[in-house]
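Usage

Read records sequentially. Each one opens with the input sequence:
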Amino acid sequence: MPRLLCVLSLSIACSASRTATRPVSAHLTMAPREEQHCLLTWANKDAYCAVLGHARTAFTESAARISTPGSASQLSLVLTVENALFYEQARGGLTFDLRVKVDIKSPDGALIDTLHCNGDAPTFDTKGVQRASVEAGLAAARDFERRYSGSDAIAAWLASR
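and closes with the structure output:
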């Protein structure tokens, strides 16, 4: 058992040091409205576009978490909601599925990397749309942070600075 704890501690230290060697500041913007996709439900034909705001809030918080105060390296994160939908679970209930794309650009506008992320949240009916949308946005933002920290393209760009 002590060996397992030692390996786990080493893994956490490696993960933390990798993040710490990537000082950057990041600013989030939304892609143009015509590129965004709102949730369409079968209950009505109106699109539920609050999902865009929920995603923006979650990803703004992620941008703050990956940023190092005072860093000179300024990344632009451009968020596009590619898909938002419900699907029915075989065991009952619904899952809200959110798929997003984040284009990561350098200060001069050059594309460094594109990360496709998704998050989902269970709900039992379409009345739980708002809660599920918020939770799926948070899950997609966590997925983004994992993908960002593992991006070789971002690591190479930061190393070149």
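Summary fields computed downstream for this record:
- The first strand starts at residue 25 and ends at 30.
- Residues 129-149 form the longest helix (21 residues).
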